[in-house]
Amino acid sequence: MPRLGNSTISGNTDLRKGIAQLRAALPLGWTASSSKTKAPDFILQIESPDKKKVTLAVEVKANLTPRSATQLGHERATKLDQTLLLVAPYLSPATRERLREAGISYVDHTGNISIQASSPGLFIRTDGANADPAPRERPVRSLRGPKAAQLVRALVRHKAVPGVRQLAEMTDSNPGYVSRVLALLGREALIQRDPRGGIVSVDWPRLLRYWAQEYPFGTREHVTPCLEPRGIASLLSRLRGRTSKDYALSGSFVASRFAPIAPARLAMLYADSESLAEDSIGLRPAESGANVLLVHPNDRSIFAEATEQDGLRLVPLSQAVADLLGSPGRGPAEAEELIAWMQGNEDAWRG
Which CATH architecture has domain 13-126? Predict the structure, then answer.
């Protein structure tokens, strides 16, 4: 059986690079060797210092998306007699997560590795790159922009997800753009579609995390730190007196109404214009000590989608989650608590 360092491993560059990463991560005294088979691609044996062996069925993939990783996990569920090691040039964080959920070991060329075996006891988990060093061009690169934001909120809001044309009408987009975004979400395993292209389900918690990562809060809006000297309660009191729909609260204030961790110390306020905040509400920019983040949104549809509770206008819960995930301090923890509440109370907010 040829050693991994030899050139006799069929000249398979992808395999050779991946296994080189694995060998470097093995504990001292452990060795690895491989042999070519028909199916799977290779058999890999990892041997401990006391000569006990772990045998892995190796499959080499040029590219693997989260959706195909999930499908691979379903296929492997019936082959419990084999432990699979997947080797690829690069595996995204979402793809790696799906592989771990399916109990599939993996290694990529950047050093992302996950291997677990009970006999002999072996556990390896290392992190390499979180961005593809050689990305492939995609029809839609990300979820950046107001149109994508509207589409994400619509997908999260509806249990029975509308079709492409309905989504286009709801978000004032063209059907072609909606189709391209849905293709991206399909590749990332964030939505499931039937053979005719209809959306069967939306993994909305993962979709919100993905959206927040792709379109960070600080990059998508004009944000001004402000100070309300009399405290957030005073700001809320003045907002309750407004009859116009030119503002919406987000962030910690929204989360604290559904999944409180601690009283909100930083208000996040979407305002339709700078003059509204300065003339009507009385906020002033502050270089330090800010207790309000004043947001002038690129996506003005956020005001139309806001709902009123207790005399105050609130952004949709999906928007509050995304804003918290990209905010400082305890914001991400508050976002996860709000997601947990949303998962347990879908009938209360999802139509």
Answer: 3-Layer(aba) Sandwich (3.40)
SS3 169: helix
Q: What is the pLDDT of residues 187-199, one digit of tens each?
A: 899 999 988 888 9
Query: Burial of 57 by CB count in 10 Å (0-12 exposed, 13-18 middle, 19+ buried)?
Result: buried
Query: 276-315: buried (b, 16+ CB within 10 Å) or exposed (e) per residue?
Result: bbeebbebeeeeeebbbbbbbbebeebbebbeeeeebbbb
Is residue 76 very low, low, confident or very high in pLDDT (cuts 50, 70, 90)?
A: confident
pLDDT score, position 107? 94
Q: Does the pTM exceed 0.70?
A: no
Q: 146-214 domain in CATH 1.10.1740.10?
A: no
| Domain range 217-349, CATH architecture | 2-Layer Sandwich (3.30)
Average pLDDT over the chain, rounded to an integer: 85
